[in-house]
Amino acid sequence: MKVKLVRSLHGRAKGHKSCVMGLGLRRIHQIVAVEDTPSTRGMVNKVAYLVRIVEET
Fold this sequence. Notes:
- The protein is an alpha+beta fold.
- The protein has one domain: CATH 3.30.1390.20.
- The protein is built from two helices and three strands; from the N terminus they run E-H-E-H-E.
- The chain has helices at 14-22, 38-46; strands spanning 2-5, 31-33, 51-55.
- It has a three-stranded antiparallel β-sheet with strand order 2-1-3, with no helix packed on it.
- It is globular, with a radius of gyration of 10 Å.
């Protein structure tokens, strides 16, 4: 699946920043392809207010 960072990490909780970095996202509007596993789904769900799923495969 492809995930896009849509909001800034500035002022966010340390754990949320770690989840976003773990997904491979660094900049706003950056899109990365991640494997669709339960662990990545959990990371996306934790920071759902910061990211959007662009495309599911």
